[in-house]
Amino acid sequence: MLIFLSRRLVSSVIALVGVVVVVFFLGRLTGSPAHLYLPQGASQEMADNFNRTHGFNDPLWQQFIRFVGDVAHLDFGTSIWQQRPALTAVTSVFPQTLLLAVVAMTLSIAVAAVLGCLAAARRFGPVDKLITFGSLACASIPDFWFALVGVLFLAVHLGVVPTSGQSDLSSWILPVATLMLAPVGVLTQVVRGAMIEALGSGYVQSARARGLAHRRLVYRHALRNAALPIISVAGDRAAGLVNGAVIVGTVFAWPGIGTVMVDAVLNRDFAVIQAGVFVIGLGIVLLNVLVDLTYAVADPRVRVS
Amino acid sequence: MSPLRDRSQPAPGSDRVVDAAASGTAPLLAVRDLAVDFATDRGRVSAVRGVSFTLQAGQSLAILGESGSGKSVTGKALLGLIDPPGRVRGAIEFEGENIVGWDEARLNTVRGPGVSMVFQDSFDSLNPVYSVGSQVTELLRVRQGLDRRVARERAVALMRQVGIPAAEERLKDYPHQFSGGMRQRMCIALAIALRPRLLIADEPTTALDVTVQAGILRLVRQLQRETRMALIFVTHDLAVARLVASEVAVMYAGRIVERGGIDDIYRRPAHPYTRALLASQPDTARSWSDLRPIAGSPPDKAGIVPGCAFHPRCPIATDRCTTEEPDLRALSADRLSRCHHAEEVLDAAH
Lengths: 305, 350
What we know:
The complex is a heterodimer. By secondary structure, chain A is mainly α. Helix content of chain A is 78%, strand content 0%. Chain A is flat, with a radius of gyration of 24 Å. By secondary structure, chain B is an alpha/beta fold. Chain B is globular. The model of chain B is unreliable at 1-23 (pLDDT under 50).
């Protein structure tokens, strides 16, 4: 198990390094920040000055070597836009995003588990059909559309939630709902499928032949086995919340990593882009470790071998 | 028609068993006109078409048949394990009460201490994510209300009883850490944990190595004798059945085609299907030329042929067999056969 985990960790770190390198070069393809920050009609001299200050006039490979050297000390440079260390700019908002993601994911798993079990227990019945239809709709609705319609309906028409920003609990409703949309839709289907398979398995049948009550078969014998596919899909969906964070940042002006990243890209703030990608990537590596550990807890065949 | 035929209600297609022991004590299990069919896209498919038999307490019966003969479905029906789209008709009287149509809660009072079952695939029968110990103690605690410590002691005792070495240390092991034979022993321990009065074993040794099979069979027979529980042993292998059962019911196309004492039938079959089954078994053959597979395949359950269901594969079929369906009739006090030519078959065996 430890060997497996460390092997996974090594490959994840290699992937993370690769992503940061790619982002370094891709970011610079967007053009020079000088034209963005200097007033219109600024002289070439001013541009050269700007580039010299920020080190953009060196050849790309020199910039890259300097970047790698700095990153080795966890120094991602300074944000031109925010005028503070890029890593601070990212880590100061990351907890907000993380909290939102954890809340959304926990609720998604809980809702999907209940709906999926209900659908599986009443397979092909009206309840199952309704849940299946609803979950497919959830998985298919574009989240940005849902977010905008949500704002229009709940905030503008009914006025029960603020249109944007982070204030009291009501300001959490739309961001959390937007992030939950796709995970709930997909996970409900996964839970349903996994539960149907588990309920039809030999061990559930033989437990039933020993006279164990239906509820015990569903929640103790089947659900624990169905947890395995649910965990892997939930992990995958949690990583996908990065996309959702951008939507939530843009539509709801949620102070999180989504807003910071979008601003950084629009402002060619390379240092923040790189730091942001690094932090998100690190988060996903840790998430995968968490998924592997959960898997081991849930399945003795992974743990004991 | 045989003068020995005992048929108070001559409903066609229903079996009535003349049981030597039936006089006097009420049977443990009485199955009457059991029919099981399944709704499919192609209409209703019959798996069991009118099976009747009785079983006394402590008696051991083998149900013998090819795949698709309805033998496993019969076993499952006895535990109320047939779910929609399956449908069960007829009567299954266990200790005098007809359990057909009972709801799950009521069936659960019978399952375990009344009737219990061991399945073919031991790996599939144990929950992979719980240790074997927790699966046994769960059953004992939930069904018998034992506390944790007593349940644990009883679990160890059960594992010893089914011949699992170092039982105490193996409690915390998971099913995948057991060998096939040990896993099936674990399944048997679970099946007998609530001291059932009837144990149904559905091909419990089919998935095992031959070397392990004998040990499991010996265990089943020994448990049956020690605990005096009745046994229904479902198998396709007559040689295996002989080791554990004293009586046999041979099934073909959802019906019993022959019933009697197992050694009797082994020596002198009274149905061409039983005879063919014996000739197709490697253990009875002395050379390759003795070994005869049964030509053709069992009938498609959706379309049973008119007349005797076995006639398309039967070497002695006559015109009568293609039109008139034979009844299960008594040839002697303890032998029943569903064949127009049963006497010929019986005599030919000598």
